[in-house]
Design brief:
Length: 270
């Protein structure tokens, strides 16, 4: 009787099959990784194109309004980006403007803003709208923050010796004033009132006082008039998207101004 070795034959047959199976699986995994990488690259390229388009639009709009600034930094949030394009809804768009200068013709000076940040969240822009340029592009919420330097405000006040600074969360002014009634130069001090008025900030002063100020009604009237002369309207630089000022806070570096708006038409000309 001839001897047979089935177990050995089966083992020899299974090993190549398993190796081929493993090789196929490895190839598939490599292909998936390569394709995934290509998708990620394509997604990031598309984001870069979108960010450049927004930056170009911001450049055009603000240049038309005589605002000078460094090239804007634009960041389109959310991942993946291409699915947002298809859905027509983007998580967020952030625009950062630096070294913003707005001319004030009547004062022959400028309002300086070292940095302004605009965040648009929940941006709705259908693909057909982007292709044709027709239709609405809206944002659920737009928030803007910027800081106006005290040097800009002092230049607008245009009174020699005026100084502004933050003390305990308040805007404090000190200014020398020549009081003709007593023929004496006195340095007065007081707090400012900050009031948003449309696209401007009204800075008004009252109750200026000094230890050297005599208790004289005529002198007091004169100083009150001087305080009114110090009051100034500060025009805020134009932003790419409209926001309404909601808060003005004195900081060590200047007036920190923030605003917000809801259901904003981003492609509406201001």
């Amino acid at each position: 009787m001839a001897e047979s070795y089935p177990a050995v034959d089966e083992a020899h047959e299974e090993r190549p099959r398993r190796r081929r199976g493993r090789r196929v699986l490895i190839v598939l995994l490599v292909l998936l990784l390569v394709l995934g990488g290509l998708v990620v690259v394509a997604d990031r390229v598309a984001v870069g194109v979108a960010e450049r388009m927004v930056a170009d639009q911001v450049n055009r709009e603000l240049t038309q309004r005589n605002v000078t600034f460094a090239s804007p930094d634009v960041t389109v949030g959310g991942f993946p980006f291409l699915t947002q394009v298809v859905d027509g809804r983007y998580d967020s768009i952030r625009i950062v403007l630096r070294d913003v200068e707005t001319p004030v013709a009547e004062k022959a000076t400028t309002v300086s803003v070292p940095e302004a940040t605009i965040d648009a969240e929940g941006v709705n822009a259908a693909l057909d709208t982007l292709r044709s340029g027709q239709g609405d592009i809206t944002a659920d919420t737009v928030r803007g923050t910027l800081t106006v330097t005290y040097e800009s405000v002092v230049a607008l006040i245009d009174e020699p010796g005026v100084q502004l600074r933050e003390e305990e969360g308040k805007l404090v002014v000190t200014a020398p004033v020549q009081v003709p009634l007593i023929n004496q130069r006195i340095t007065v001090r007081g707090n400012a009132k900050l009031t948003p008025q449309g696209d401007d900030i009204l800075i008004s002063f009252s109750g200026l006082t000094s230890p050297d100020l005599p208790d004289n009604p005529l002198v007091r009237t004169f100083v009150n008039g001087f305080a009114e002369d110090l009051s100034v309207r500060v025009p805020l630089p134009a932003l790419p998207f409209p926001v309404e000022v909601t808060e003005i806070v004195p900081r060590s570096t200047g007036l920190a101004i923030s605003g917000t708006a809801r259901n904003v038409a981003l492609n509406e000309v201001r």
